[in-house]
Design brief:
The chain is an alpha+beta fold. It is 40% helix and 18% strand. The protein contains 30 helices and 26 strands. The longest helix is centred in the middle third of the chain and has 27 residues. It is globular and about 70 Å long.
Length: 946
């Protein structure tokens, strides 16, 4: 690991010398002396959950910057996020995307650290990660890092807001990177829809602009000022301590964190600025109602209803829109979704408020349609307004609000914190929107029902105040949206639809937990609770997350689950049908903190139960009874099959990196089936095939199960016996064919995915020599060493594309390294040549590498692998994944982490030629014909046989 304290910038040396002397002499300064010398204007402690054992402090510096400090002694990462309340809404008309471009430029060097990769290299060398994003009214910069390296990271991070160089040498290259980012998202359906929506909103409202930017919009502007000068002007005009909100989450004590903030952020200029506000209406009410259709690239039909309403952000204490959104988005019996599903018109629905600008927002109801639903838009609209009228008549009852309030308080009381980086970013955003005392509580706070405000929002949900927005692949028009090339057209309302019958408001929720006591006891890792030839159950009691919750995973394994493509489809159909058939009855349980899902995999399917310990047994019983005994209706079968077919038809339009990863899995894992094969097989199957398969599946099972959470061994054993007794498994683990990794060919080969994307890509996969944990450690360290130079050379310097990374990429226990580059305008052959050149340079650098230089990378791998789990579900999933390997070991991660510290330069030098002799390229250029990946896979031998 590199030294954690960096050189101190000269302008901070005097401040630090005095501050350090004061602390050293006095240890605990008297309040009057502290107040006199500290640039801290105010200190506040926010409201937190009684089970949150972290320490909080909100510090407001004299320059106006607010900093939320969170001391978490158990954190094994430190993280920071700076939210600047300026975004794309402030872009000038002649330089759209400027706020986003500025975000990119701040990473490219500062006065004390002028190298363009100084920040990135330091973060990477200390087991960290970093990124940023630009929204309409916010720009957020964030990182995480090994805790002892936090001071050095903040040295570099703070200089973004003090002395950025706006590196002239990288101005053009970064403009190309922004353009690559734009092109990588140009076929994204949500962006295409927003591009059309922006044409319908008020053009005077600045959130309707082109936020990303491109080569054209960021070309040197007309006039005397250059692009760089305009970037600098924008920075000085909008970036100010008063519009900045910083959050740090770290294991250091609060006083230490406060010192770090004061030393590095107190000098950010205070120009007495305030966050920009938006006064222009979001939409002209005189233009409503409007009926719009737009073309989707994916085979997906979507109907949205937008209603302009006041932005409810400032009304967070009473949340007047929450109950309305809850009732419209309900999925239980009698709900709008329920009657639409029953009529075969829809398979999904959501409701909520979005596109807020601080003044106005859009209340949105989104409905995922079936092909039959696409033919009855007017009936769906009429049904929506019937549901709204029902809420207007009897829905806004105080008991319903109180029920939501009770559930919200439960969630706040037992909230589980995410990873430090996620927490820092979330809290920095919250700090920019809510009073400091509610920075943690705002999302959960419900003081009482405000009937008058609720009624105002409900009154806005009328046909005269509506924008109806339909998306489908068969929409055609000569009108094209300006940035994302989307065909769209405006329609006149046709006929009045007929509302569907059967709507009903939900009854009181019967699933609300009453016993939320925390049980003591903590196991270090799962242990076998039941071990028989046909059934194995593991258990781990946990109390560290301070939540009375339990995660159950139950893997139902069947020997023919992936034997043929038809059986693979049937396995997916069975899991999908089980989810679909339980959706209405278990939706109230989900609202109350219990959830169930089934998902298919190569060996069968897994049942996942998550939520409060209290009430989980009836949930398990209901799911098992449904799986075994419930009727498979024709409607449910057709609905689930259509959903799967839609997913497989859309696969060629999915993200190109995802398609490349899937192609790699198809080539080097068996059994595997392509989406085209799955789609074709699904068209041959009928309901009777699924009914027959369900019986065959349940008759021949081996079962693995695991319970992780706040329950003791006796409680876990009782539930495990319930599962075993209900399903009566008959097979052994040896009866289940394994998912097997395959050996890469000795000769370099190229495979093309089945894609209709318009970008180019290369995914180069380098496979290790064996499955030993020592080899896994070696490849992990080597991937860490390659990561930053690969990014710096191919993205920053050579500008090949926006998506560039190198990382450790195992396929089950087979270790490997993946190098990936996606480009909007460089063909895959050229990309491959650049990767070849990088690898040649890397070989030279590896031969000259010293043990001292490698030490930082070894330590980074060690620290990353030893990161603690930040939630009960993530910990349960990590342990659960270990049961899928041939040798079940729950300490494998820690074992590899320790071995990483012993990896030598000589071992990596010996490994290098073996990797180069076992590599596979997944490449794509627009128009490439897909490879027959099955032919490649069938010629491979199992990896362990090498």
């Amino acid at each position: 690991m590199l030294p954690t304290m960096s050189a101190i910038p000269p302008r901070l040396q005097a401040r630090r010398a005095v501050f350090g002397l004061t602390i050293g002499l006095l240890l605990a300064p008297a309040p009057s002396l502290w107040a006199e010398e500290s640039p801290v204007a105010e200190v506040i402690t926010p409201t937190i959950s009684p089970f949150d054992d972290r320490d909080y402090r909100v510090v407001t510096l004299d320059n106006g910057l607010q900093a939320l400090l969170v001391s978490d002694p158990d954190a094994d990462k430190a993280a920071a996020s700076m939210n600047v309340r300026v975004g794309s809404a402030q872009d000038p008309d002649d330089l759209q995307g400027l706020a986003h471009f500025l975000e990119h430029m701040l990473f490219l060097g500062t006065e004390p650290y002028p190298q363009s990769d100084a920040y990135q290299q330091y973060i990477s060398d200390n087991a960290g990660s970093h990124n940023a994003f630009t929204a309409q009214q916010d720009t957020n910069y964030f990182f995480d890092i090994e805790p002892s390296a936090l001071p050095g990271a903040l040295d570099r991070f703070s200089e973004f807001f003090l002395s950025p160089l706006f590196n002239a040498d990288h101005l053009e290259s970064e403009r190309n990177i922004v353009h690559s980012e734009y092109m990588a998202r140009i076929r994204d359906e949500s962006r295409r829809e927003n591009d059309v929506l922006n044409q319908l909103l008020n053009p005077d409202n600045p959130i309707t602009g082109f936020a990303v930017g491109s080569r054209d919009t960021l070309a040197n502007p007309e006039g005397e000022a250059t692009l760089r000068e305009r970037v600098i002007e924008f920075y000085h005009r909008y970036y100010d301590a008063n519009v900045m909100n910083l959050t740090i989450v770290a294991p250091q004590p609060l006083d230490t964190l406060e010192e770090l903030v004061i030393e590095r952020f107190a000098d950010i200029p205070d120009n007495d600025l305030s966050a920009p506000t938006i006064d222009a209406p979001l939409i002209d009410p005189d233009t409503l109602p409007r009926y719009v259709e737009r073309q989707s690239l994916q085979d997906r039909r979507q109907l949205r209803f937008y209603f302009p309403v006041p932005d409810p952000t400032d009304e967070y204490r009473t949340k007047p829109t929450q109950l309305i959104a809850h009732l419209l988005g309900d999925e239980g019996d009698g709900s709008l979704l329920s009657v639409l599903r029953e009529s075969g018109l829809a398979d999904g629905l959501s409701a909520g408020v979005g596109r807020g600008d601080g003044n106005e927002a859009l209340f949105t109801i989104s409905i995922s349609l079936t092909p039959a639903g696409a033919e009855r838009l007017d009936d769906i609209e009429a049904s929506l307004f019937a549901a709204i009228e029902q809420i207007r008549d009897t829905g806004l009852a105080e008991w319903r609000y109180d029920e939501q309030k009770s559930l919200s308080e439960q969630a706040f009381r037992f909230q589980q914190h995410g990873a430090p980086q996620q927490e820092a970013t979330r809290l920095a955003m919250s700090l920019s929107r809510y009073p400091v005392e509610d920075v943690q509580y705002a999302a959960y706070r419900m003081d009482g029902m405000d009937s008058e405000r609720q009624q105002r929002y409900l009154d806005a949900l009328t046909q005269d105040n509506m924008l109806r927005f339909y998306s489908a692949p068969d929409v055609e028009s000569d009108t094209i949206s300006p940035w994302f090339n989307t065909q769209w057209k405006e329609q006149s309302p046709t006929t009045t639809g007929q509302a569907l019958s059967g709507l009903a408001l939900p009854e009181p929720n019967p699933f609300i937990a009453s016993d939320l006591t925390l049980q003591g006891g903590q196991d270090e890792q799962p242990t076998a609770l039941i071990e028989t030839p046909t059934f194995t159950a593991w258990h781990m009691q946990d109390s560290r997350f301070n939540t009375p919750s339990v995660e159950w995973r139950v893997s139902l394994q069947h020997p023919s689950a992936s034997y043929s493509v038809e059986e693979a489809v049937l396995t997916r159909l069975l899991a999908g049908w089980l989810n679909d058939s339980l959706n209405e009855s278990l939706y109230p349980a989900w609202i109350a903190g219990q959830s169930f899902s089934a998902y298919a995999h190569a060996r069968g399917m897994t049942l996942s139960f998550s939520g409060w310990r209290d009430g989980q047994t009836p949930l398990i019983e209901q799911a098992l009874e449904q799986l075994q005994q419930a009727d498979i209706s024709t409607g449910a079968f057709e609905r689930v099959r259509y959903q799967l077919q839609r997913e497989w038809r859309n696969a060629p339009q999915a993200s190109l990196t995802g398609q490349a990863s899937r192609a790699l899995g198809e080539a080097l894992l068996t059994p595997q089936w392509s989406t085209a094969e799955l789609l074709e097989a699904s068209q041959r199957l009928e309901k009777r095939h699924l009914e027959n398969f369900r019986q065959r599946f349940l008759d021949d099972l081996y079962i693995d199960a695991m319970a992780v959470g706040n329950l003791n061994a006796e409680q876990a054993q009782e539930q495990a016996n319930l599962i075993r007794g209900a399903l009566t498994p008959r097979l052994t683990r040896n009866d289940i064919p394994p998912l097997t990794p395959l050996e890469v060919s000795d000769e370099s080969e190229i495979l093309h995915p089945h894609s209709t994307r318009e970008e180019s890509l290369v995914l180069r996969y380098l496979q290790g020599r064996d499955t030993s944990v020592e080899e896994q450690a070696r490849l992990s360290v080597l991937a860490q060493w390659l990561d930053t130079p690969f990014y710096q050379q191919l993205r920053t310097e050579e500008q090949l594309g926006y998506i560039v990374n190198a990382g450790y990429s195992p396929l089950l226990e087979a270790p490997g390294i993946g190098l990936i580059v996606q480009s909007p305008d460089v063909d895959s052959g050229t990309i491959a040549e650049r990767i070849d050149a990088f690898m040649n340079d890397a070989k030279t650098r590896l031969n000259a590498l010293s043990d001292e230089e490698l030490a930082a990378h070894r330590q980074a791998v060690h620290d990353r692998l030893n990161q603690r789990d930040t939630s009960l579900p993530s910990m349960a999933n990590r342990y659960w994944q270990a049961t899928a390997l041939d040798e079940v070991r729950f300490d494998r991660r820690e074992q590899i982490a320790e071995l990483a510290l012993d990896v030598s330069v000589e071992e990596l030098q010996a490994l290098w030629p073996a990797l180069l002799s076992h590599q596979l390229d997944i490449r794509f250029n627009p128009g490439d014909s897909p490879s027959d990946i099955a032919v490649y896979r069938e010629a491979r031998t199992p990896f362990d046989a090498r």
